[in-house]
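In practice, a research group might receive sequence data for several interacting partners and want a quick structural hypothesis before committing to experiments. The following worked case mirrors that situation: the sequences arrive first, and a predicted assembly follows.
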Amino acid sequence: KAGVTQTPRYLIKTRGQQVTLSCSPISGHRSVSWYQQTPGQGLQFLFEYFSETQRNKGNFPGRFSGRQFSNSRSEMNVSTLELGDSALYLCASSLEVTGSYEQYFGPGTRLTVT
Amino acid sequence: AQKVTQAQTEISVVEKEDVTLDCVYETRDTTYYLFWYKQPPSGELVFLIRRNSFDEQNEISGRYSWNFQKSTSSFNFTITASQVVDSAVYFCALSGLTDSWGKLQFGAGTQVVVTP
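A structural hypothesis for the assembly, expressed as tokens:
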């Protein structure tokens, strides 16, 4: 079974621009979660989607948004990029949504904002 | 609020030594789940183990073993006979039933360095 895939793997953007990251979950997984990883803040939960609905959201500003499609693929968007948005963005998929099942992570998208 | 504390920032060992990683958690949920993940230099988080709060039995899986003690809210992880390939950052994570949809609360991670 193919794992979680994320595109692109690397991205360089300028302050003020917007960016869209994509995630394809493991086949059969309907829950997709997004995390931001930075050296200072560690791994922080952004949001989770299940059946095209956002079920949970972390403490991030409204510039961070996402969506999920009917095939469970998910995208996250960051508008008006700031230098502090430079991070590794990780997507994870899971069979179940209540947290009782493990999440499987993709390789991440490393975003650099200049 | 849920919280996971990994007090050890970095552990350095010589190959074949055992490595024990500490994890202390806080949660108000009576049912919760604990996980260990490994993040090698490539960046991808790799799932290692999961434990349910209602099952305190400790197990061994290959070179990995874990010690779950509800009384002290600890979920420690041991790598036996470490190898160079074990060099990575290891994260302890917690998921409860409150506000848990798809959310893992991670600790800060422990960098393990195994030298030949």
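Before designing any experiment, note the following. Chain B has a mean pLDDT of 92. The two ends of chain B are 41 Å apart (CA to CA).
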